Amino acid sequence: MIRVLVSGATGAMGEVLIDLIKKSEDFKVSAGFSKEDKVCDEFTIYSDIKKIKEKSDVIIDFSSKDSLDSILSLALDKNIPLVIASTGFDDKDLEKIKKASEKVPIVQSGNFSLGVNVMVYVSKLLSKLLDGFEIEIIEAHHNKKRDAPSGTANMLFDAVNEARDNKLSKLYGREGFSDSRNPNEVGIHSLRAGSINGDHEVVFAGLDEVVSISHHAQSKKIFAIGALKAAKYILDKENGLIDIKEILNIGE
Ligand SMILES: NC(=O)C1=CN([C@@H]2O[C@H](COP(=O)(O)OP(=O)(O)OC[C@H]3O[C@@H](n4cnc5c(N)ncnc54)[C@H](OP(=O)(O)O)[C@@H]3O)[C@@H](O)[C@H]2O)C=CC1
Ligand SMILES: O=C(O)C1=N[C@H](C(=O)O)C[C@H](O)C1
């Protein structure tokens, strides 16, 4: 039985993850981490990582960028693998994650669903094949999402940009007048409304033709399923930053 320390335990994703773990035969919740202490039937949620004494085999983090330092020190202190699903990280945060992965195995992804990671892989291919087509990215999420654009939109931008020798630049929204569109700009547009679980579209627009690829998350479960798969995969790894594509068997 794999003992999971759930970070972000009282959040929307934390609750979905805990519910899936309770129905699983392979996993159990050892403890939770969140902003407030809370005693649940089968485990305790702590707001202070120093109070967490329960033995855990892996940490799965669906909290926020604000708890990154706590989560990294928890993984390093307990010397256990870490699945980072929180989004909104900047380059300094990503550097901290890379540094910590020298000591413990870490997988960090803005999206743990299979469908999105296949979409990221295909978007890179489309960007290469449709050279000269202009690219726009649209993402839509629920009205409680704090960060914009989504981590997934950033993954999609990185993929299409890599295929264009990193010559592309992000443009967040548009307003006012402009004589012409810079061919290397990628408009990234974020919708926030209702209870949308996570929709993404990449549009490749050429002269008189458009190619697009999209993903629609019908539940939050798809992210928790991917995170649990990642947790199982990194359990026996020594250390290192493991690519989600390796875990989901996507591409070379
Ligand atoms: N990679 C992926 O596949 C996916 C990633 N995500 C990401 O996961 C994160 C959580 O999403 P969601 O569950 O919807 O968000 P919620 O706001 O519903 O939950 C966030 C949780 O983290 C806790 N938290 C926030 N800041 C801290 C902190 N500094 N220390 C301790 N606990 C903290 C919150 O506590 P409290 O409730 O007290 O505020 C809450 O329990 C987001 O970054 C989101 O983008 C979401 C879905 C899929
Ligand atoms: O906040 C969410 O809900 C989600 N966030 C992730 C992101 O920022 O891409 C993944 C998914 O789209 C749901």
UniProtKB/TrEMBL annotation:
InterPro entries: DapB_C (IPR022663), DapB_N (IPR000846), DapB_N_CS (IPR022664), DHDPR_bac (IPR023940), NAD(P)-bd_dom_sf (IPR036291)
A Pfam match: DapB_N
Subcellular location: Cytoplasm
Binding site for (S)-2,3,4,5-tetrahydrodipicolinate: H142, G151, T152
Superkingdom of origin organism: Bacteria
Residues annotated as domain Dihydrodipicolinate reductase C-terminal: 115-248
Keywords: Amino-acid biosynthesis, Cytoplasm, Diaminopimelate biosynthesis, Lysine biosynthesis, NAD, NADP, Oxidoreductase
Record domain Dihydrodipicolinate reductase N-terminal: where: 2-112
GO terms for MF: 4-hydroxy-tetrahydrodipicolinate reductase
Annotated NAD(+) binding sites: G8, A9, T10, G11, A12, M13, A85, S86, T87, S109, G110, N111, F112
Keyword Coiled coil in record: no
This protein's pathway: Amino-acid biosynthesis; L-lysine biosynthesis via DAP pathway; (S)-tetrahydrodipicolinate from L-aspartate: step 4/4
Group of enzyme by EC: oxidoreductase
EC number, UniProt record: 1.17.1.8
Amino acids binding NADP(+): K35
Reaction equation(s) it catalyzes: (S)-2,3,4,5-tetrahydrodipicolinate + NAD(+) + H2O = (2S,4S)-4-hydroxy-2,3,4,5-tetrahydrodipicolinate + NADH + H(+); (S)-2,3,4,5-tetrahydrodipicolinate + NADP(+) + H2O = (2S,4S)-4-hydroxy-2,3,4,5-tetrahydrodipicolinate + NADPH + H(+)
Catalytic site positions: H141, K145
Family according to the record: Belongs to the DapB family.
Function (record text): Catalyzes the conversion of 4-hydroxy-tetrahydrodipicolinate (HTPA) to tetrahydrodipicolinate.
SUBUNIT field: Homotetramer.
Name of the featured protein: 4-hydroxy-tetrahydrodipicolinate reductase
Species of origin: Anaerococcus faecalis
